[in-house]
Amino acid sequence: MKISARNVFDGTVEAVKPGAINSEVDIALPGGMKIVATVTNDSITELGLTAGKAVKALIKASSVLVLADGSGVKLSARNRLEGTISGLIEGPVSTEVAITLPNGYKVYATITHEASVALGLKPGLPATAVFKAPSVILGVSA
Amino acid sequence: MKISARNVFDGTVEAVKPGAINSEVDIALPGGMKIVATVTNDSITELGLTAGKAVKALIKASSVLVLADGSGVKLSARNRLEGTISGLIEGPVSTEVAITLPNGYKVYATITHEASVALGLKPGLPATAVFKAPSVILGVSA
Amino acid sequence: MKISARNVFDGTVEAVKPGAINSEVDIALPGGMKIVATVTNDSITELGLTAGKAVKALIKASSVLVLADGSGVKLSARNRLEGTISGLIEGPVSTEVAITLPNGYKVYATITHEASVALGLKPGLPATAVFKAPSVILGVSA
């Protein structure tokens, strides 16, 4: 597979909670981290997603927010991966932020340049990658 | 809280409509405007979202479309905030558009540069910020 | 209608599968291609979406992933439109990719510049535009 998603994480399905149209899938990553994905029930069947299954979680960089200071707030976004800023690529409108997680995974976020400046993002500072469950695409070996 | 979302709006929960996995949350903004968010039921519980609760609605600029002329069409996107273009930052691929709402709030949208040119976007012109309910992240004071 | 979505496709509703809050809408495009959209039940009612109805499917370029080689993997994303790369606009952070489909439609994807380089995207190469059902906004004539 060669795909443009900047974030492709290997994990294992922990649980599948079915709804009428969509299901919530809990995924364990190395190092005790977790990701929650919402996918259609058709995908659950087609990909054979059940507990224990090896799975790839794909998240577009544009779906990821960067939380520089989460004190005093609780967010509805199910996915929050805490790490350290390890890279910044600045453009006139957009900035790509790389956050390295304790397990060595890198999460990439594309945010506006103005947000990057307003938050004072710099390599070495702590930051949390935040994304919603419906932003996650799941993949399995064919 | 310091977060990269360009759009962070203070509002009040008006109603919560539960589904099997997700709930729809109606939020009132100052000036009679409304936002609809879809979040997981787990978030409803965790954030204690009930009618009357103060809440922050976060929307990434990349989730927002700009409607320059909505005549002759009805869209499925639940959120449509009408205002006036108050700023444009142009890049080679992306353009950031700021739309000021009647209540003074600013909504930011990141769109393609080509779309910006094709629509003839200019400060002072009317425009509507359009985004889907699942694009909204909710936050409450911890 | 004048809207910033780079992808606006004319199609016909084939089926509507209702859930508690959202419904899945199957849409036929010219040339035998299909799109699946997830929209709220309120939108189904408001837009009068039923089988046979003419509909526009709108997808932001930032919601589209580019799959350069899909061998060995199955993805949960419901929408996969196969075509040929017909244009690339490179920026420092983002790249806009145009993929021309067999029916003549063009799909635009905004991806990170680094992903574009890593995948070796070039005009003339085959590529698949991938996007999730909740990324699709539907429109009907008013």
From TrEMBL, chains A, B, C:
PROSITE patterns: MOP (PS51866). It comes from the Bacteria. InterPro entries: Mo/tungstate-bd_C_term_dom, Molybdate_resp_trans_reg, Mop_domain, Transp-assoc_OB_typ1. The keyword Nucleus does not apply. The keyword Nucleotide-binding does not apply. Keywords: Molybdenum. It holds the Pfam family TOBE. GO terms for biological process: molybdate ion transport. Residues 2-68, 74-140 form the Mop domain. NCBIfam families: Mop. This is Transporter. It comes from Zoogloea oleivorans. The lineage of its organism: Bacteria, Pseudomonadati, Pseudomonadota, Betaproteobacteria, Rhodocyclales.
